[in-house]
């Protein structure tokens, strides 16, 4: 037997029940004197109708009975829901919910208001609040947050199995924090310090931005020397100064532009020839990092062009000049000659007089841009320069030791957890560096805090999984975290780390820091850390 349609069921039921009711109503209309008789006859008739309906129901196939039951229950449920919704949303007045009308006007009076100051209409909380803004207020209609936070138990269910990956080293420090609340939602030895490798650049950047501000620029100058025909090229500590051609307005400080301005000023003075000196006295202490000569870092001096690279690269390992300052001064002398300025002999190292008159100068991009470049490409030269700039701002010697001390002091002023922390350099190349995952995660929380807009470039500079910087070749085309995870990487022999931000499946912004020491398979460890970051992107974790 074909299954009955819902409208057929409704018509059948309506017909059967209406027939019995009509019989009863007809008998009730005969008057009060015959009521007892009518009542008895009507009830008997009604019982006969009910019995007939029951017989027909029992004889109806089971499949058709299920259909009728579903229709009847659905109709009743719909009616109940509608009635309850109306009652809960009320009270009502003249077809308008009084709560809505009260919020739409200043004084709760009925009617329209087309102009004048008024209370803003209620709005839903945003799915993901913009970085640096206060959390959205609770919705007056829903009574709750639009995006629920993850729970520790939910995150533990997701991350703890991944932490058992044998590719991870014996030492592990893990922290996951909710940016909206600023609270840690998952931790595994989160306060235990470990070697962070390049993820320590987050701490270096935070210290420099806090000490100097995101708009600070590093100046490279030419000043008058001791003699009337002497000029001195003074290094200000800008490792991004370039001897290459530049285009557009937003570019690193250009040695060619400095040569243009210097040649123009000298030609106005006439005379010559000139003697060129160069001043690297801004920095103190050893020039070489403890790792010694290395393709990952030039000698740390305040005057260099293109980070002392001897090829045409602009990031990553490369052959480096033994004396970047002398090479930069030699390039500058050649540029002056190309512009018609006679320069005698080769440039010599020297020190400019205090308060010497400035002939010309160029400035770096804003500090925020330098921090972004440092994080995206894991630039060690910029990191060591920023540690020294932080030292100068604090009145400390611009050295490895002075930079480490100044960075630590700034982190303390930011009220970050420094238990067990030791800062030895700005780049993370020194294995003496020790910080906890909790510290790095807190740095990222501060960067998203509306009270610390100066730190924002710590987030905007993070590499994007599968697209930019040191994460460009990581995360497969179909990986969950591709394009969603943003994180600073860290790699030394036996050390792997990852620290950054991710939006989970519910739209909640989380920050994380994963540190592992004692790894024997660098690629396997990287994949394990990437899976952990992707897991955050793939779950609501509640």
UniProtKB/TrEMBL annotation:
Q: Where is this region: Disordered?
A: 95-158, 305-327
Biased composition of type Low complexity is found at 121-131
- InterPro entries in the cross-refs: Beta-lactam/transpept-like, Peptidase_S13
Residues annotated as transmembrane:
68-92
The leader peptide range reads none
State which Enzyme Commission number(s) the record gives.
3.4.16.4
What keywords would UniProt list here?
Carboxypeptidase, Hydrolase, Membrane, Protease, Transmembrane, Transmembrane helix
Q: Which domain of life is it from?
A: Bacteria
Family under the similarity heading? Belongs to the peptidase S13 family.
Record's compositionally biased regions (Basic and acidic residues): 98-115, 306-323
List the protein's name. Answer: D-alanyl-D-alanine carboxypeptidase/D-alanyl-D-alanine-endopeptidase
Gene encoding this polypeptide? dacB
Q: Which Gene Ontology molecular function entries are recorded, alphabetically?
A: serine-type D-Ala-D-Ala carboxypeptidase activity
Pfam families documented for this protein: Peptidase_S13
């Amino acid at each position: 037997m074909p299954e009955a349609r819902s409208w057929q069921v409704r018509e059948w039921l309506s017909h059967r029940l209406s027939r019995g009711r009509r019989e009863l109503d007809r008998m009730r209309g005969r008057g009060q004197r015959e009521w007892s008789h009518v009542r008895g006859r009507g009830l008997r008739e009604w019982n006969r109708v009910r019995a007939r309906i029951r017989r027909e129901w029992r004889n109806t196939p089971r499949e058709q009975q299920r259909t009728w039951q579903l229709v009847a229950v659905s109709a009743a449920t719909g009616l109940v829901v509608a009635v309850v919704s109306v009652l809960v949303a009320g009270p009502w007045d003249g077809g308008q919910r009084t709560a809505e009308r009260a919020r739409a006007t200043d004084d709760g009076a009925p009617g329209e208001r087309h102009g004048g100051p008024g209370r803003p209409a209620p709005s839903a909380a945003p799915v993901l609040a913009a970085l640096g803004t206060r959390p959205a207020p609770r919705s007056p209609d829903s009574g709750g947050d639009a995006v629920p936070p993850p729970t520790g138990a939910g995150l533990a269910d997701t991350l703890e199995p991944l932490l058992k990956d044998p590719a991870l080293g014996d030492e592990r420090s893990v922290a996951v924090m909710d940016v909206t609340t600023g609270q840690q939602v998952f931790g595994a030895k989160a306060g235990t310090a470990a070697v962070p490798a390049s993820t320590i650049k987050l701490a270096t950047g935070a210290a420099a931005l806090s000490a100097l501000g995101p708009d600070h620029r590093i100046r490279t100058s030419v000043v008058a020397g001791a003699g009337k025909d002497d000029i001195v090229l003074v290094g200000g500590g800008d490792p991004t100064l370039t001897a290459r051609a530049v285009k557009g307005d937003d570019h690193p400080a250009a040695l060619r532009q400095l040569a243009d301005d210097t040649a123009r000023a000298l030609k106005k003075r006439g005379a010559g020839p000139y003697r060129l000196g160069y001043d690297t006295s801004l920095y103190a202490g050893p020039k070489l990092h403890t790792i010694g000569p290395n393709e990952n870092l030039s000698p740390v001096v305040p005057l260099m062009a293109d980070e002392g690279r001897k090829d045409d690269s602009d990031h990553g390992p490369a052959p480096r000049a033994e004396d970047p300052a002398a090479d930069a001064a030699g390039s500058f002398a050649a540029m002056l000659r190309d512009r018609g300025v006679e320069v005698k002999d080769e440039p010599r190292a020297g020190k400019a007089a205090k308060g010497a008159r400035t002939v010309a100068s160029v400035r770096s991009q804003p500090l925020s841009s330098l921090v972004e470049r440092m994080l995206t490409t894991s630039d060690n030269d910029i990191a060591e320069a920023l540690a020294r700039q932080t030292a100068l701002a604090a009145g400390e010697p611009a050295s490895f030791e002075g930079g480490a001390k100044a960075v630590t002091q700034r982190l303390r002023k930011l009220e970050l957890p420094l238990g067990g922390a030791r800062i030895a350099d700005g780049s993370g190349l020194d294995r003496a560096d020790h910080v906890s995952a909790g510290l790095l995660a807190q740095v990222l929380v501060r960067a998203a805090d509306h009270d610390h807009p100066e730190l924002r470039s710590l987030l905007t500079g993070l590499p994007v999984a599968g697209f930019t910087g040191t994460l460009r070749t990581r995360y497969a085309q179909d990986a969950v975290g591709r394009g969603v995870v943003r994180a600073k990487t860290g790699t030394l022999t036996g050390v792997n780390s990852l620290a950054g931000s991710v939006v989970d499946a519910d739209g909640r912004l989380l920050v994380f820091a994963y540190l592992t020491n004692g790894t024997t398979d660098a690629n396997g460890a990287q994949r394990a850390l990437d899976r952990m970051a992707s897991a955050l992107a793939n779950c609501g974790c509640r």
